[in-house]
Fold Large ribosomal subunit protein uL24m.
Amino acid sequence: MRLTGLLKFPRRKYAELGHLRHIPHEYIEKLKRAVPKKVYGNRFGAPPLIRWALPPDDYVPQSKPIYDSNIVNETIQREKRYHHTVLNHKFFEKRSHTVNAIPRDNWTFFPGDKVQVMVGKDKGRHGTVHTVVHETNCVYVEGLHTKLEYEEILKLHRLKEQPLFVDKNQVQLVDPIDGEPCTAEWILNSDQTEYVRISQRSGLEIPIPKSALRTTEYYTPETYIEVDDKDTPHNIVLKKTYKPKLCTFEQDIMEEQGIEDDREHKPTYWY
């Protein structure tokens, strides 16, 4: 009975939203460089020896997206310094990670949300969120909380948005009833079928903007267009074609190609 109740419980679909949700997890780990560079196995029963591109415990989330060019360049340079110290038997000081990310189930900010800045020179002004970084609990607001920075490529100064941290109350959602700042929470709707975001101040629902549905594949799911020459239809992807056999990969290929192996294999022994 308890298992049946859990299966009927509505899924928190809002926790799955994100600009990078269609990118493979392995690719994101490669951007972090927290992947094995070489694995030394077959060590006579000893556990495999892993040589990392960068140690996983050295990774520290940044306030910019993981795909930002500056972040990628800094990670590559740090990887080079790490291997230089390893080859020269020197000490490599790892970075400390002190940021506690807000759980996705409790996260209430999405791209396209109307928010109010609570700190800095733009305190009290309203703006629209255009970037969300879950790992460091920060958002970027279009045209607000900016800082003058120098562009190396363009050779000029320009204003760039700086991160506003949600866990430090530097930014808050705008209540739809009167435009005042408020906090939000997730509750089940009257039909108990899905979660909705409501203002704790007025109790009104704050709908999720369409910009939150944007990914690297499409702007909205309805506007996604499949490419016949590149995209495999879902009915073919879900079709089960694998048939397990008690043979190795080489033996399976030989059977399909009609190759017969007449060699006499020498006996093997396990100790």
Remarks:
- The mean pLDDT is 88.
- The two ends are 49 Å apart (CA to CA).
